[in-house]
Specification:
Largest interface: A-B, 68 and 69 residues
Helix content of chain A: 25-40%
Oligomer: homodimer
CATH architecture of the largest domain in chain A: 3-Layer(aba) Sandwich
Strand content of chain A: 25-35%
Number of helices of chain A: 9
CATH class of the largest domain in chain A: Alpha Beta
Structural class of chain A: alpha/beta
Shape of chain A: elongated
Order of helices and strands of chain A: EHHEHEHEHHEEEEHEHEEHE
């Protein structure tokens, strides 16, 4: 139904992390990247989480990079034995991997003599043909190879890298949205919503029930690139809610 | 490295939701399910997020259900036009879909006469051959078809459904973990960690740096099914940290 997306760049996220799959860590990077890309008019079309296993990373990365304009990976680029992302990306592209002179210089300048040990040097191993993505937080860089951006998993570092990456990205029409919230069961207005969606194929109309301590209801979200149409659709939704005797609220998230 | 997993059931999560990919909603279901399955000794091996598009759901579901012992889906089983999960699951299995007598009875008893409208009846459309998963929160059921469990996206409802599902699941060896936290740069102990991991192939040893207001450091996590080996490995890690002149803390998450 979301036909505007055909002309926008697309993206996928590949989260590399045993700690996400074990439940030890709540992933927040996907949500941050999703919002960041939305503001640039890039449609996040898929996200995957895979374990720290090379063949899993390779298979997922190759599936995603063939299909979407961009792939953003998070995790696995530190100095420890479980950081295998750079090797996996090199394997996925079928290229070699070696110590990168610029990365060596960056990290060499950061550490005192004797502290730049072999494990830390692992962080300068970059697949052949990749360009660095600077890390303003902790120096060890990410990298870009073709349409794949390899970032750290630590949120603070990932966010800094995303800022470095942004100027390299093609942009689409920014996505706008309006949300109508109503203290109504979604089953009471579902037929109206279906009719409204049918009449406006350039926007995506989503219905999200909520249950809060102060009561339940539904958030009706209109998303698209045409702000005037979004406002018109939000108006139609409000009218449909009022027709059920409920006063809605329009909120902006 | 995680060889214990070979004998445990495996699982994948398929999150169906435009609202996750747009960044509007932070997914918390994956983390909850991951922890829930870990306690049952079921290895969560992969997670994917796909949009509310039938062919995307079908393709992802068929890939995952062929590969893992179980697949858990969340989202898209409400009464509105954007709730297309049941139809997509039926399409993935190549079976029909129809109003399910037991689901009709459950929801028919919930609503007052005249309130059980056509859109609400959509929630009783269940793929042929599926069994219901009760919903103790809001009645409208999820369902199981072969190794696939279809749950609501609203976290409160999803959690209730997971409790209903638990007795149907095969269990593996529960996963245990110990965490050693140290105010040390991970690059200083990376070589020791690699050596310890090399000596204990039945546990998974992960290194997760943190940056907090009161300082930075690393959490070193040992995971496995043998509690004695986990304790021994945690002891080796503590010794390696102390060898660097830092006093570690063992914490339990």
């Amino acid at each position: 139904m979301d036909e505007r997306q055909n002309s926008s760049p697309t993206a996928a996220i590949l989260v590399i992390g045993d700690e996400i799959l074990s439940g030890r860590t709540q992933d927040t990077n996907t949500n941050y990247i999703a919002r960041f890309l939305g503001a640039l008019g890039i449609d996040l079309s898929e996200a995957r989480v895979v374990p720290d296993v090379q063949e899993e990373i390779v298979a997922a990365l190759n599936a995603l990079r063939a299909r979407y304009t961009y792939v953003f990976t998070t995790g696995g680029i530190g100095p420890t034995h479980d950081d295998i992302t750079a090797d996996a990306v090199a394997a996925a592209f079928g290229v070699g991997i070696d110590y990168h002179p610029e990365a060596l210089a960056l990290l060499g300048a950061r550490y005192k003599p004797g502290e730049f040990n072999e494990m830390r040097k692992r962080m300068t191993r970059i697949p052949d043909g990749a360009s660095l993505v600077k890390n303003s937080v902790s120096t060890a860089p990410g990298f870009q190879i073709e349409n794949v951006f390899v970032m750290a998993g630590v949120p603070m570092i990932m966010r800094a890298m995303l800022e470095e990456i942004a100027p390299r990205l093609a942009r689409g029409a920014p996505v706008h949205s309006a949300t109508v919230e109503a203290r109504i069961a979604e089953g009471r207005i579902a037929a109206s919503l279906a009719r409204i969606q049918e009449g406006h194929k350039n926007v995506a109309l989503g219905s999200y029930p909520f249950y809060r301590e102060d009561g339940s209801g539904v958030q009706l979200v209109v998303r698209g690139s045409d702000e005037a149409e979004i406002a018109a659709v939000a108006g139609e939704i409000e009218a449909a809610v009022r027709a059920e005797g409920i006063e809605p609220a329009r909120i902006y998230l």
